[in-house]
Every structure is written in C-alpha cells, then in structure tokens.
Design goal:
By secondary structure, this protein is α/β, with parallel strands linked by helices. It has helices spanning 15-27, 51-55, 72-83, 100-120, 140-148, 190-198, 209-223, 225-231, 241-251, 263-275, 287-297; strands spanning 33-39, 60-65, 89-91, 128-133, 166-170, 174-178. The longest helix is centred in the middle third of the chain and has 21 residues, at 100-120. The chain is elongated, with a radius of gyration of 21 Å.
Amino acid sequence: MKNMDNRMNINWYPGHMKKTKDLLKNNLKLIDVVVELLDSRIPFSSKNPDIDKIIQGKPKVVVLNKSDMADSEKLKMWQDYYAAQGIKAIPVNTIGGKGVDKIVEECKNVTREKMEALIKKGRKERPIRIMIVGVPNVGKSTLINKLTGRKSTQTGDRPGVTKGKQWVRLKGNLELLDTPGILWPKFEDEQVALNLAFTRAIKDEVLDIETLALRLIEKLMIIAPNNLKERYRLNKLGDTPLETMDMIGEKRGCIMAGRELDYTRIANIVLNEFREGKIGKITLEVPQDLVNDKIEEE
C-alpha cells in the first residue's frame, strides 16, 4: 500500500464556481427568499461560509437534505441550533419527497409581510421568488424536480452537472431561480474538506481515495464504531485505522495475487457504502464541534 500522508491537500475551485457566485449576487435583487440547502450528515461543512454575507439579510429558509441518512438525534441538535438563531431548519429527503411541502409553506411564512405590504401599496399579487443555494451534490436539482412535479433540470450524481440559469414555476404561486452549487476557493479547515469529500461534494477524481477511505474509517471508529463492526462483521476494530481497513478488506475478500490487499477496492467499498447509507444513519458533525473549534482557535 502506498504511504498514507496524514494530511490531504484539497484545493478545488473550478472557474464556473466564481461565475456562479457572481450570478447569485447579480440576481439577488430579484429574490424574495433564499433557500439554503445543506447535507444533514454535514450541516456545517456543506454550508458555504460566504452565503450569509452575500444574501445580506434576505429572508432565509434552511433545508437539511438527506435527512433519511442522518442520525436522528444529531439532526435534532442542528434543528435546535438554527431555532436558537430564529431560523426554521426543515429536514427533508428530496429523493423520496418527505418534507418538501414544508419548504413551500415556510417560504410563504417568511415572505408574508413583504407580499402583504406590496398588495397594500396597490401592487398586483405576483409569485414569491425563490433562490435555492447549496454546494455541489447536495441535492438541488432533485429538490427542484420535486417542487415542480416534473423533471425540469438536468441532474447527475456528480458535482457540477447543473449549469446555467433558469426560472422555474412552482405550484402554490412560487417562482424559482435555479443556480448551480457554489463551493469556496480554499478549504482552510481540513476536516471540512474531508467531510465534503466523504459525501462526494468533491469529485473522487481529484483525490487519493485510499487515503480518503482511511480517514473516513478513522472518523467512524470514533463516532460510529458499532456501525463499522456490524456492517463488516468485525468482532472488534483494529488498534489503528489501517488495521481496521485491513480487517474490512479481508472480510470482503479484497485480496490480490501474493495475498496482497487491494486497497483501492477496499476504499471504493467503504466510501460507496457510507454514501449509500449502508453503514448506517451517520452524522459526521454536531453543533458542539463549532464551539470546540472556536475554543481551540482562542
């Protein structure tokens, strides 16, 4: 197996990301409410740190997607975290459609005063204009398809498939401006970068997946050891992440000629099974992590 470097250097910022950021800024004046789509498994890491500055006080609805793949207790922690800020965070499963109707309802709630004020001024009632923002692969296109009831945008399981700009009419007198996902130019926090890579918000093609899988195993040994043992039928975990990776490889028969383990195959198995929810309902971070990070910085 190749030497596993302890750190992963991830710096991925395609040109279309900057264009998207400019597009968002330029079209914000047309928008009544911003829907911020986050991954329930990594609500902090999947949040673009520039979003709140860019939207400049516009009403915002937070949507925690892929909630069916998250730990329910930790998901509740994130809902409470946002509630303390006066923001309703809505858990949804865009593929199944669970919770999607609540997004429409909340968009109407947070814009009610503005829309009523326009009517009082004698303005004709118009659709509520929504913008959905989120990092790549967080489920934006799938959510739009559910909101419209039809396949209205190109979708794919790889980041960056959705491109360009389009207005989409929704049921309930809503209108949506779709923008591609935004990812920031530099991952200063290594754990944020890793969490995004674990959930495939960063393409595997730009990473060393063997190292990535090893780091995921390292994380799961801490936060979800029983899930690992149960999924890979291990009586116990190894003393190190690499030992555990070896044990998984042996259990799954990832053995090449000369009894060498096929680490690329092991890595693909672990990453794919985590992403498909087969290792269990796992949330990789909790609000307390943000507090701990601030304490460490001080």
